[in-house]
Amino acid sequence: MSNNGSQPTVTVRVQRFNPDIDKKPFLQEYRLTPQRDTTILDALHEIKTHQDGGLTYRRSCRHAICGSCAMNVNGRNMLVCNVPLRKHLDRRNRVTIRPLPYLPIIKDLVVDRSSFWEQYLRIKPWLIPPDDIPEKEFRMSPQEVAALQNAEKCIMCGACYSACTVVATNKKYIGPHALLKAFMRVLDPRDATPGERLKEVGTDEGAFRCHTIFNCIDACPKGLDPTKAIETLRQLAAKRQAFEAARRERQKSLAGPVPVSE
Amino acid sequence: MYKTPGFISFALRRITGIALVLYLFMHIWVIGSAVGGAETFNERLNLFQQPAFKVAEVFLLAAVVWHAFDGIRLLIVSQFKVTDTRASQFYAVLVLAALVTIAGGVPILLFMLNGG
Amino acid sequence: MRVFQLQRISAVALVVFLTIHMVVVHYPPFHIDFSRILERLADPLWKGIDITFLFFVLIHALAGTYAVLTDYESIAKFKRPIAGLAILLGLIAFTWGALTIWSFQPPV
Fold first, then answer.
1. Buried-most residue among A83, B107, C34, C60 (CB within 10 A)?
2. Which of C7, C51, C71, C100 is best to mutate for the B interface (most B CBs within 10 A)?
3. Considering the entire predicted model, what is its pTM?
């Protein structure tokens, strides 16, 4: 049978909740005929445009860079703009879309991310350079850059934070997103305050609260590894003073040639 | 709950941990009764040699073994930062724990069936 | 950080002591009664091993319980009293256990 790329009709179940009207969230079903490359975000647009204008969700760039559209699909967190609907059908040809778990729901698929941002700001997510800034650029070796493990690729989508079982039980936990960013700053040779950063995250509200559950890695749409970052922070927190001294030493040569590694 | 192998491993580790803490204090109490002499001790211990308790002992073994092997897995992950093999680690722990539980549990059950 | 480190250090120690314990105490013959304990605990070396075992077990169990309880935001507020209770319970259990083991004499 020739196929122009269209699929049989599928059922899209979306969690709805309007706090002004509903007592509690419920699942609403819609029927769609997606193309082969229809993304889940496309499907939501289709539903909102033609079937139910009241459906509410966040989205922006629709190409996996803004981080707005993180949601829970069939029990797993992901960005819905770059996943084909076809790939997430269960055995009954349905896909189930819920908002990110463990966060208060504002409406339908939109959640309150205040605790996410609070924990992020708590770790001072900006570079704190040394007092004497070199005339030209700061110089880092390729190995020093590699040690940051691409953490700057993080788009702050919230998928990892909202997948974390520890976050579920304790909103005072700093969270994989902020710990990853803290790791990035601690390991950056241009940053002059690794000691203070390690003191802030090397506590039992921070890196030592992680239970190595790995949900964050599974959820990250950019393939990042917060658990590895957290393990590194744990090791560094135990040797904080030595690390601080090494950083001071390294910063003496930030304007000079990069260190050669063996 | 966000259900992944990582979550199941964590949940089992926590449940077995709590069970083992409760067992620990009971164990201290039973063994500590040795102070009272042979009769008291043997009496208390014989209670725990009943078949129902022998079966429970196999579950206890399973709990200890799971908790220990999963804990060792955490030590390895911490030390060597091997997060990319996390799925295989989980299954390895499951298999090892099952093997040791069977190896230890079968003799316990046989011993029980043979009248102790 | 300290609780975490205690947990990990006691865990490593327990892998060793638990293996010894399982092999020595629970290896065949499986029957356990007073006389079996008698043979072992008359020896100061075994007393020492058992007391050390008890020490690490209590650290791991109480640190673990503390960690589990303080995971939950509503309970975490009370982490100081919980820590105090855990330390107290540990001291009592260890003192009683260690003394019992150390002073154990096979009856004449």
1. C60
2. C100
3. 0.91
